[in-house]
Amino acid sequence: MTTKMIASSVYDWMDERLGLSELAAFARKKTVPVHAQSFWYYWGGITLFLFMLQCFTGVLLLVYYRPGVEAYESVRQITFVMHFGWLIRSAHAWAANLMLFAILVHMFSVFFMKAYRKPRELGWLSGMVLLGLAACFGFSGYLLPMDELSYFATKVGLQIPVAIPWIGPAIANMLRGGPEVTEFTVQRFFALHVVVLPALFIPLLAFHLWLVQRYGNAMPESEEAKPVAERKSMPFMPNFLRKDIAMWIISLNVLALLASVFPWALGKQYDALAPAPMGIHPEWYFMSPFEMLKLLGMVRWLQGEPGEIAGILLFTLGIVLWILIPFYDKNKESGRRARLAHYFGLLAVFALLATTVIGYWTIR
Amino acid sequence: MNYPFWDIPYLGSGWVIGIIAIFHVMISQFAVGGGLYLPLAERKALREARNDWLKELVGYSKFFLVLTGVFGTISGVGIWFAIGLTHPEATSTLIHNFVFGWAIEWVFFMVELSTAAVYYYTWNKIDAKLHLVVGWVYAGASVCTLIIINGILTFMLTPGDTWLGVAGTGHEASKFWNAFFNPTYWPSLLLRSCVCASLAGIWALISASRIDGGKQAALKASLVKWSVKWLVPSFVAMPFLSGWYLLMVPESQRALLTLGIDTMGTGTFSIVTRMALLIVMASATIIVAAYYLAYRNPLDFNPAHAVAILLLALMATGAGEYSREMLRKPFVIGRWMYSNGVRVPYALKIDQTGYLVHSNWVYDANSSYSRGEAIFRGECGSCHTLNGYRPLVTLLSGRDRANIESFITMLHEYKADSPYHHFMPPMVGTKQDVEDLTGFLNAHVNPPAASGQKPVQTAQK
User: Which residues of A touch B261 (CB under 8 A)?
Assistant: First the structure.
């Protein structure tokens, strides 16, 4: 029996039970639009790929990581003692950053392509929740090494919810496991990072993907205006899939380049009694809200607590408006609303970039 | 010591060579591989009466002439300027040893440049067979340049025991052939030949990807497929040749490769391992991309795909050249000259006479800071900067003066079991030199809170 015959009989056996040929026929029938903006279609796939890498490297790190008082020592061993431990850790950390970057690109491309309109509202909403969960993954994972930088950055980050009137301090205490960031906080963040968040993220991701598959790729308005006969498309299987995989491989190379040339550093072990190191700042994906709060606090009549509250309210309002955009700009007949939504998107991009640049520019 | 090092703040002088060299290698190895690609493709086109191929080759040879004749030569001369300024000691040794080798190399360069121009400008103007002969002359000359430069480059990693036996006696050139055909010569020559063939295929893919597959399907499919085949020898032979090459490298230097497996640090601690990973990753991706995107689907193969493959090749080549440079650590010429230009047998002598006796930097003999600065520039400056690439201010941060001094003393004593023994040269000089260097570094790592001592400007004598 040749290898081909064995493979064929295994396929037949599986096909009979799982209906693989129907699935393959369906994938071949499914098409993806081809136009000048097709490039943006790959960013969802890149995000998915980076998430899978996160899971893989995360499980490997889980083998040696010990939360609690030994957290720092275990990360030190992973980084400096275990064979290729530094590589797995660097890949995990860089993939997290790349994934958040890919999500943001994906979100803005969906926004400007107006892919949130009917019937894709749930796709947009589930995507926004996934972004929120990804940010939580980033925040909770950042503390786990318990080095000087992660300790103080988390300490500063957890000051933000404290500004919420009445319930703020209680929320912060619940997250910290007490009034200070300690090994109990690591324990909580670890549980959040490896159990709670994945348990929420994975089913929601499956739902999001199912919606994408159900409604297909949205087209930009310029493309939708064309007669159906003039629109181009390519089969999902194998053409789009092949290009998608090529993008995954490119992402893997970018990740390898970053992890090899700039391995993720491990600072000194935290010392709760020591002063915070100079230039402490949040990760780049939290820099924008952090800077917005800082800027509002500088307004003369908003200094102190009122500024913090105003900042949080303003930021929350912006996010709520952003999330609810499908219910404002509902369809292609939206007209003035569509234009306003577009300007709102441009304003968001500008605000994010400007505050991030100012944030890094003013680090001391 | 004949000359001071070229002081490049922040970037470091090594990167000046590195940036020019990586750019140059991509083009010069293409010049060799492409030199074989063109006559072989022309011969195939003539034999099979493929006029469409010939038309395409005219355009390709123009691209080839411009890229290799302009950018290749400019960057090649750039390397000469850069190494002369950056590492005068090592350059001096190479010239004294290989002056005739280099003279021959330049003759071949002249032949190469002339024939490349003749080859392009005589398309359809001279007899086809004669034109093909011009192509073969170019190919022969370019292969010869590789044969020669490979001897000089590999000499720097593994000069061999015979040459080392006469090194420093003034009779080094008498062992020219031993130095030339050194232990890593053959594996390196075969490795580079494979890389040349791959680069020829990859650059040809750039050209072929621009053909409109809708209008010239047969031409595009045949050229893309034929170009992909140029990558095959490389990917079949590379793993074995790399193994052979590494086997020829002294064990102490090979240890740099394993050093990075279980530890992560900055600088040389694990960089060879990290670069090796990049080479494997990028090469594997090139295989997959070349097979699936180009060979299996030649008509869909577009310039974006071709540029992606080229960038991957740049990544692999850059990482490969960087690793080769790093494998030489702590030497710039294996077992003969440390990376800071100090000849190995002279280290003990300098320990007795003091480093500054041999230094050409101007310094204020009455200022410890100024003496320390001159020592820093001579002994550390070839690999480190203060605040830029491999910054000593960062690498030594957190250490007080006593700690910095004990670190420099450790480098000065240079015990065999020191982890730095693998990749850093000893700190040579007297106790006073150690003191002076400590003072200079401490002034930058732990600057005085108030107005500190202003750096004294040193200059070349």
Answer: 83-84
With helix as H, strand as E and coil as C, how does A317-353 read? HHHHHHHCHHHHCCCCCCCHHHHHHHHHHHHHHHHHH
CA pair distance A346, A155, nearest whole angstrom: 33
Contact of B323 with B272, CB cutoff 8 Å: yes
Average pLDDT over residues A243-256: 92
**Residue pairs spanning A and B at CB distance below 8 A:** 57
Residue A9 touches partner B, C-beta closer than 8 Å: no
Instruction: Identify the pLDDT of residue B259.
Output: 74
Site from B263, B264, B288, B311 to mutate, A interface, most A CB atoms within 10 angstroms: B264
A156-176: pLDDT as tens digits: 888 878 877 788 889 999 999
**Which among B282, B297, B300 has the least Cβ separation from residue A253?**
B282
The interface predicted TM-score of the complex, written ipTM, equals 0.75
Question: Which tokens is A270 given?
Answer: 């935290």
Contact: B288, A242; criterion CB under 8 Å: no
Please judge whether A242 and B270 are an interchain contact, meaning their C-beta atoms are less than 8 angstroms apart: no
For residue B340, CA distances in Å to B206, B333, B337 come to: 41, 11, 8
Phi, then psi, of B174 in degrees rounded to 5: -65, -20
Helix segments in B249-302, DSSP class H: 251-259, 271-289
CB contact under 8 A, B315 and A253: yes
Residues B285, A253: C-beta atoms closer than 8 Å: yes
Domain B344-445: give its CATH architecture. Orthogonal Bundle (1.10)
pLDDT score of B460 more than 60 = no
Contact A100, A108 (CB under 8 A): no
Inspect the interface and report whether the beta carbons of B274 and A260 lie closer than 8 Å. yes
Cross-strand pairs, A269: A147
